[in-house]
Write a structure and sequence with these properties.
ManC/GMP-like_b-helix (chains A, B), Spore Coat Polysaccharide Biosynthesis Protein SpsA, Chain A, 2 domains, nucleotidyltransferase activity (chains A, B), homodimer, about 25% strand, Mannose-6P_isomerase_type2 (chains A, B), about 375 residues, alpha/beta, Nucleotide-diphossugar_trans (chains A, B), four-stranded mixed β-sheet, globular, nucleotidyltransferase (chains A, B), 11 helices, 17 strands
Chain lengths: ~375, ~375
């Protein structure tokens, strides 16, 4: 099944740019989702940073972005290099199985034997050389027929991430650090997370999946045959004049399901999954506490300030301020505070309450105030 | 010296509408000082409420307002009844001795034997019938030649107010509850304040002074002869075509000094001061903690919301929100918080830090950001 070129030459990156990032409201919105924001102060949006991180692995012509129609212009503005054949637009969100599966099906149809790797558009990664080394190992494991993932060595008992329980080393050609996968586990409670970190055989699930496109689709077809049939129908019509008609007929009917459930968990149970430990800095920047942590380097006393023209006057305060309004923001004696100041909505909370922001967004939806969502 | 009419018939109210209220920034501004805001949720500005409280005492034609030129239009908008002869405009702020002294000098010149009472434009008073009863006693004491003040029976060991130490009862005709005054004391520390409240012979200094205009000016002339000479010069020219020229020549040279120092303290030392205890609700609404307290009725768990079109979504939060921007304000898990949201400036602090707001304003002045002051 292996082609003649080196596995990395057959590698194609896929960036599913979906999800609003509700826990980052009112910064993240339906029309300005998390991946379009610069949350690190690098001057680049997260999706741009993701793109630049993948270019050394697959080259700029082999990175496909799957996104909602509404975000095409914004994404192309920050990634002008993005070629038309690498743009996949969703007419409505259908979760990660459909998004990544469609990319895999299109690429497999164009280029049989292609190896695809999917990487979230809105994560933050440091020490990119280590990231690339881990992905290269994962690509080698994919070439050997496995579905590979990169799991992050945990640095603390985080309760906001899912974990991967690892089993025995299973060194492969080009992937010497590959481990077997026992199971994918959901976000744990603190006690369980502490046990995981102490035990040393759990990694954070960073949602990176690398495998041959055909292997991925075959695995998905075992649990979701109708979904994969739909994806293959879309892929066959994709580069033809029939694309629009088939999308209209098929896409709305596709099942919404996360790829963790349709592929990763069943593959782990069948022993088809391998994990490459990644010892690089990684964060899914899931909430404002995470942003505060990213910027403070763990120092509780610091105040992180995000926003191009932020005007902040702080006295004896710590936490994070996100300024999008240009207004003067004055903080006096507030600790671990989260202030997000946008032109039409203001959020004031604390790091400890950062996970509850999603509940507010839900309440706003229910009360019909979607003008600010 | 006493006229033939009842003392209250010779009574004239004076409202010195000065002071920005820096501790209420960014709500209070140079162009929108505290007295122009509705801080109680009554639907009326503080200066309007002050006016309405005085009408039953002196009638609408006998209330003089001393204010900065810049605020005339705003004051007249909320007090359309204000007659031209009751408007005294300051070309620049000169503190309370000049403001109240000029009103007294003008009124004494127009109407010898007049009794004047000065009442801050930006205080909150409840139980107005008790207020009026106390002022009526003070007017009777003034008629007897005293400088009278109304001191508020303290309800807690406040450290944000000055205190009046009382001596023996000195019942006067029409003022049966009058007490002698030992001294005026500055804002105390908590321990001292607790001792004052326990002891029962200290009242809060609410800055109300009631006396015959001539008595007030004579007392002021003892410590500040040049100031009073200037005020008399202004008063003589006030109702003549020379007013403008004399104001230009005299007003800029007047000394800036609080009436507490030029009149109250020396008069107390000379035994010329009497105090009428007032057992009505009173607050100078000096900071946001005071606003929060006013609105919560002392319940720590409450969230007070001020602002005509406030849109606030609060979860497990308490304190005070002042909304002037029309934006949606969302609070999650913040206690005793103070959020003041205005179109160009945002303040986030806590009740415990409310007194420190002035320091921020000072910092803004120093750093040249007076656009938001």
């Amino acid at each position: 099944m292996t082609g003649t070129e080196a596995p990395l030459d057959r590698f194609y990156s896929v960036i599913p740019a979906g999800g609003i990032g509700s826990r980052l409201w009112p910064l993240s919105r339906a029309d300005a989702p998390k991946f379009l924001h610069d949350l690190t102060g690098s001057g680049k949006s997260l999706v741009r940073s993701t793109w630049e991180r993948l270019v050394p692995l697959s080259g700029p012509d082999r990175i496909m972005v799957v996104m909602g129609r509404a975000h095409r212009a914004a994404v192309e503005a920050v990634i002008p290099e993005l070629a038309d054949h690498n743009v996949v637009l969703e007419s409505e969100p259908k979760d990660s199985s459909a998004a990544i599966g469609l990319a895999a099906a299109i690429l497999e149809h164009r280029e049989p034997g292609v190896i695809v790797g999917s990487f979230a558009a809105d994560h933050v990664i440091g020490q990119e050389r280590r990231f690339r080394r881990a992905v290269a190992e994962a690509v080698a494991a994919a070439d050997a027929g496995y579905i590979a993932t990169v799991g992050i060595t945990p640095t603390e008992p985080a309760i906001g991430f899912g974990y991967i329980s690892c089993t025995e080393p299973m060194p492969l050609d080009g992937a010497p650090s590959a481990l077997g996968v026992g199971a994918f586990v959901e976000k744990p409670d603190l006690e369980t997370a502490e046990r995981y970190v102490r035990g040393g055989d759990h990694l954070w699930n960073a949602g990176m999946f690398i495998s041959r496109a055909d292997v991925l689709l075959e695995q998905m077809a075992k649990s979701k045959p109708e979904l994969v049939a739909g994806l293959r129908e879309l892929a066959e019509a994709w580069d033809s004049p029939r694309r629009g008609a088939v999308v209209d007929a098929v896409w709305p009917r596709l099942e919404k399901i996360a790829i963790d459930y349709s592929v990763a968990e069943p593959a782990a149970a069948e022993g088809k999954l391998t994990v490459i430990p990644g010892d690089f800095d990684w964060d899914d920047v899931g909430d404002f506490a995470s942003i505060a942590k990213l910027h403070s380097g763990g120092r509780k006393s610091d105040l992180a300030i995000l926003g191009e023209n932020a005007r902040v006057l702080a006295d004896a305060s710590s936490g994070v301020v996100v300024s999008q309004s240009g207004r003067l923001i004055s903080l006096i004696g507030v600790q671990d505070i989260v202030v997000v100041d946008t032109p039409d909505a203001l959020l004031v909370t604390t790091s400890a309450n950062a996970q509850r922001v999603k509940a507010v967004v839900d309440a706003l939806k229910i009360s019909g105030r979607s003008d600010v969502l």
